[in-house]
Amino acid sequence: MQVGAQVRVKESVLFHHHPEHRNQPFDIKGMEGELIQIIQDWQGREVSANYPYLVKFTKKFRAHLGEHEIEAV
User: Fold this and answer.
1) What is the Cα–Cα distance from 50 to 46, expressed in whole angstroms?
2) The domain spanning residue 23 has which CATH number?
3) Does residue 55 lie in a domain region?
4) I want to staple 26 with a disulfide (CB 3.0 to 4.6 A). Which of 3, 21, 56, 70 is the partner?
5) 3-state secondary structure string across the chain
6) CA nearest neighbour of 68 among 7, 6, 11
């Protein structure tokens, strides 16, 4: 997957920071968004992030996800 790709959440993932469902568990399974960043380094040093894919779903909601949780659309 590359930055700019459209992706879909293929597994059940609960978030408590969704802006429309604040402090309540919200399952994002099936939601689609745009891959906006793949985190590979921090301040010039290589990192092995557990959830390296930053996906933008709406203007206010972004989430870090793992490769096993998303699929290309």
Assistant:
1) 13
2) 2.30.30.50
3) yes
4) 21
5) CCCCCEEEECCCCEECCCCCCCCCCEECCCCEEEEEEECCEECCEECCCCCCEEEECCCCCEEEECHHHEEEC
6) 11
Residue 28 lies in a domain: yes
Amino acid at 11: E
- For residue 57, tell me if it sits in a domain: yes
In whole angstroms, what is the distance from residue 66 CA to residue 63 CA?
Answer: 10
Q: pLDDT digits over 3-32, tens only?
A: 999 999 999 999 998 899 988 999 999 999
Domains held by the chain: number: 1
Q: Kindly state whether residue 1 falls inside one of the protein's structural domains.
A: no
Backbone angles phi, psi at 69, to 5 degrees: -100, -15
Domain enclosing residue 50, as ranges? 6-72
